[in-house]
């Protein structure tokens, strides 16, 4: 039996209903009762952020590949939706089968950011699950977490049944299957946890004792409880995938209906980083570096773009420029993407990271800006944090960028780093000002250099884990200093909210006692603490003060000879390595990237430079004996193979940008010229997809065309867009049997039936293509052609004489909201009403079922036909108000027809 969305009847009451409808392209919806292991993959932030997270896509794909296992997605509901759910006594449900969290075997949270922890408690409560582990009943799901923040899990330990440490791909499906089978066999909760606690990468907090360390004053884990000693490990080792070279990557993940934060197809290029930045937790806990085969990356990228219909792609990893085959890979991708009218985004750039040939290629698509992360303003600070980049590197990059036509650059820095002085803070803006000056020297008029500055928060498992964090007043003082210098140097300045950073510092190095503070803050209204508009700083301060905890334990300098709240988690690094790097930092000493030849920091863009860089027969490779087992020789051999497989860039003819630019122009509409062929397409928009916005509908339709392999003409200018033109926006939540859009294509369509079939094959649930007709440049737009709209309004009670009474009235006054005057005004809608009559819908059963998902339509109702003037008519909400005011109990209207002028 199909599961219906329990929120359908009130979705129009929330700001972004598309967050809660599910049913996306490539979604995996299984028969609930036919699976043995069921897991809810929970992301403790909004849909559009969680849907951009690669880790969630990987786990979703990995688990659902197993026929007996099921993974469904759950995201944190925004404040407005939480209010609606609670007021109705409903539960937080998944997006596939709309099952409440309490019905799953495992409820797993991805920990990406400490300021999302209050959302975890909120999701558990809304999902019908006991928040504290100690209160959880035998039948309740196992609540777990994973991700980078799970390597320091103590602030959440009292809420978690177990924690997955490290990479989850190969481990999580096994865990899900084991828990599902154990449940089916009737194993008790603690029996299951005891077995899991023996697994590598699994930490069960309740089986471990804690005590206050006299040196650090932290509540630390002292080891397994007496009854488990010798059976479960003293320290929990992380689990990791040892080789990504040929490891699969999902190319058919659910595609969000609404615009996600990163609205593109992304491929994880590598995991880990050789740079060794001392502030970077990810660079430490994801060692060793594991790269994907570049040939596979190309295939994954092109498959993902085609499958999803995306027009933008990106490569992601901690340091893209350090990928061994970055230059030949990016050059090949740019050529292939260019032919698909798609662009490439490259994240995590170092200032000296990109070959000039890559910049030439990127310049062809006229990206508006590039982003770099020097992190420290002065050379001394860059040495302290082990950022192997000089000011000359940065300025050379600025010259390379601005000389190729870019007008914008973004630079990321941090303040509050260990040993930082005021001159180091000022150097941030001085360095950025030099980059701006370089832009003017390159002929750029009014260049835009944006300086984004965050506050350093010391993180566990890094050389800076013992460092203090500067105070809130000091953060604000330094931010004001930066603001003054930004104005002086004509730079754009963005800063992270200081109060959020101050709280993050407490949670990031917190122990189990922090759990009480998180719980109290959540119970008093803390939600979305990483969002400026919802963060309640005073509430958190109150909860911290009431706890009686001395926060300097977590914010001050930590003694190096004491125990830490995360020492029981073994991420592979030795304490000796971290200590040496910390001491180097305090003496402004660099540690060149590991895995390179001693005395060389060379970016290898082809096979010859790689051979020179990794001359393993004659020179010794840099290794700091960090504790992680690395096969450096094997890594070099693998990278040689990668470059050979790409034939190296020297073997690939370099095509000048001017040659490539022609092709793009040919697919664009020439101004004031009637180029290509123009068609009007009729379609239906029914059911849950009616809750996506008008702009999102245009994006969805564009992706359908790309998936169907149907090329469109594109607009001119930097903001290239497909030439699709839609009619008046449809009200959210209103199903429509007839909508139109116009499209301009480069080649004539001769077989409309084939075109319809291709579009429908690659369509979204609820979008049904009905007809195609030929139009020309003189055909009025849909907006101008619309003559009348007809709605059917289902009515629950007896219609009686309402229709006849309305027909006889000379005036029908309703209250209508005026955006211009920002208030309700009286409005006479009688002149707009053409016809009103009773009747019933008689539609295809499949159509009725889709409409029924959001609006019951199998009942008598009223057909209302209204005049359209300049694209506007009576709004569905006004029809509802009119009929409700006459005592009728109505459902959502359904738009059944649009009449166009001939």
UniProtKB/TrEMBL annotation:
SMART domains linked to this entry: Elp3
Ranges for domain Radical SAM core: 259-494
Stored InterPro entries: CHP03960_rSAM, DUF2344, Elp3/MiaA/NifB-like_rSAM, Radical_SAM_N2, rSAM, rSAM_horseshoe, rSAM_sf
Pfam families referenced in this protein's UniProt entry, alphabetically: DUF2344, Radical_SAM, Radical_SAM_N2
GO molecular-function terms, A-Z: catalytic activity; iron-sulfur cluster binding
Top-rank taxon, per record: Bacteria
The name this protein goes by in its record: TIGR03960 family B12-binding radical SAM protein
Phylogenetic classification of the source organism: Bacteria, Pseudomonadati, Bdellovibrionota, Bacteriovoracia, Bacteriovoracales
């Amino acid at each position: 039996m199909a599961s219906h969305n329990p929120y359908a009847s009130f979705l129009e009451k929330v700001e972004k209903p598309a967050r809660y409808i599910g049913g996306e392209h490539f979604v995996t919806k299984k028969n609930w009762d036919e699976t043995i292991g069921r897991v809810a993959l929970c992301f403790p932030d909004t849909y559009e952020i969680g849907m951009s997270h690669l880790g969630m896509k990987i786990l979703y794909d990995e688990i659902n590949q197993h026929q007996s296992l099921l993974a469904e997605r759950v995201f944190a509901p925004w404040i407005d939706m939480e209010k609606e759910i609670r007021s109705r006594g409903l539960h937080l449900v998944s997006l596939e089968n709309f099952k409440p969290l309490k019905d799953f075997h495992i409820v797993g949270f991805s920990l990406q950011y400490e300021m999302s922890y209050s959302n975890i408690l909120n999701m558990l409560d809304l999902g019908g699950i006991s928040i504290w582990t100690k209160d959880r009943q035998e039948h309740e799901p196992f609540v777990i977490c994973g991700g980078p923040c799970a390597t320091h899990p103590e602030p959440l330990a009292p809420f978690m049944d177990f924690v997955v440490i490290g990479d989850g791909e190969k481990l999580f499906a096994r865990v899900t299957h084991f828990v599902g089978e154990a449940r089916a066999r009737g194993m008790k909760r603690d029996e299951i946890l005891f077995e899991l606690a023996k697994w590598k990468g699994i930490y069960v907090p309740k089986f471990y004792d804690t005590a206050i360390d006299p040196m650090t004053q932290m509540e630390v884990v002292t080891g397994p409880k007496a009854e488990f000693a010798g059976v479960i490990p003293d320290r929990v080792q992380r689990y990791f995938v040892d080789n990504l070279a040929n490891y699969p990557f999902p190319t058919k993940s659910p595609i969000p209906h609404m615009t996600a934060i990163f609205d593109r197809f992304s491929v994880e290029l590598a995991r880990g980083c050789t740079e060794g930045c001392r502030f970077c937790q990810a660079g430490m806990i994801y060692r060793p570096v594991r790269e994907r085969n570049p040939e596979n990356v190309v295939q994954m990228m092109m498959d993902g773009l085609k499958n999803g219909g995306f027009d933008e792609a990106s490569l992601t990893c901690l340091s893209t420029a350090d990928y061994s085959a970055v230059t030949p890979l990016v050059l090949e991708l740019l050529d292939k993407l260019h032919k698909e009218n798609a662009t490439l985004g490259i994240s995590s750039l170092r200032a000296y990271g990109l070959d000039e040939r890559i910049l030439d290629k990127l310049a062809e698509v006229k990206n508006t800006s590039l982003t770099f992360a020097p992190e420290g303003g002065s050379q001394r600070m860059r040495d302290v944090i082990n950022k192997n980049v000089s000011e000359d590197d940065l300025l050379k990059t600025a010259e390379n960028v601005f000389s190729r036509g870019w007008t914008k650059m973004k630079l990321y820095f941090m303040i509050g780093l260990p040993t930082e002085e005021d001159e180091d803070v000022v150097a941030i803006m001085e360095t950025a000002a030099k980059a701006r000056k370089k832009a003017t020297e390159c002929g750029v008029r009014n260049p835009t250099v944006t300086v984004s500055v965050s506050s350093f928060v010391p993180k566990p498992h890094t050389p800076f884990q013992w460092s203090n964090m500067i105070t809130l007043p000091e953060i604000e003082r330094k931010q004001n200093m930066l603001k003054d210098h930004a104005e002086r140097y004509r730079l754009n300045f963005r800063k992270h909210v200081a109060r959020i950073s101050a709280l993050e510092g407490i949670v990031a190095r917190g122990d189990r006692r922090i759990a009480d503070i998180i719980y109290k803050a959540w119970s008093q209204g803390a939600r979305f603490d990483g969002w400026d508009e919802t963060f309640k700083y005073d509430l958190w301060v109150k909860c911290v003060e009431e706890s009686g905890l001395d926060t300097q334990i977590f914010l001050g300098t930590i003694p190096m000879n004491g125990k830490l709240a995360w020492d029981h988690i073994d991420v592979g690094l030795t304490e000796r390595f971290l200590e040496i790097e910390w001491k180097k930092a305090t003496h402004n000493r660099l540690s060149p990237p590991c895995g390179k030849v001693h005395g060389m920091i060379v970016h290898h863009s082809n096979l010859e430079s790689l051979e020179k860089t990794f001359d393993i027969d004659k020179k010794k490779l840099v290794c700091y004996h960090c504790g992680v087992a690395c096969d450096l020789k094997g890594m070099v051999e693998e990278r040689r193979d990668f470059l050979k497989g790409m034939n190296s860039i020297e073997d690939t003819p370099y095509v000048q940008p001017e040659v490539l630019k022609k092709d793009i122009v040919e697919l664009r509409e020439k101004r004031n010229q009637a180029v290509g062929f123009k068609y009007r397409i009729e379609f239906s928009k029914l059911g849950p997809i009616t809750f996506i916005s008008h702009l999102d509908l245009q994006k969805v339709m564009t992706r359908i065309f790309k998936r169907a392999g149907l090329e469109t003409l594109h607009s001119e200018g930097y903001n290239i867009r497909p030439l699709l033109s839609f009619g008046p926006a449809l009200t959210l939540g209103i199903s429509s049997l007839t909508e139109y859009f116009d499209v301009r294509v480069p080649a004539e369509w001769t077989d409309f039936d084939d075109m319809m079939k291709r579009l429908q094959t690659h369509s979204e649930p609820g979008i049904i293509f009905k007809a195609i007709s030929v139009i020309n440049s003189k055909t009025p737009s849909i907006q101008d052609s619309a003559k009348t709209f007809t709605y059917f309004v289902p009515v629950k009670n007896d219609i009686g004489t309402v229709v006849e009474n309305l027909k006889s009235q000379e005036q029908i006054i309703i209250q209508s909201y005026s955006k211009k005057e920002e208030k309700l005004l009286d409005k006479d809608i009688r002149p707009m009403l053409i016809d009103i009559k009773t009747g019933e819908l008689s539609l295809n059963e499949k159509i009725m079922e889709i409409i029924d998902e959001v609006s019951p339509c199998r009942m008598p109702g009223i057909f209302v036909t209204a005049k359209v003037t300049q694209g506007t008519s009576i709004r569905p909400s006004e029809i509802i108000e009119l009929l409700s005011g006459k005592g009728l109990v109505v459902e959502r209207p359904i738009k059944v027809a649009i009449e166009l002028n001939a």
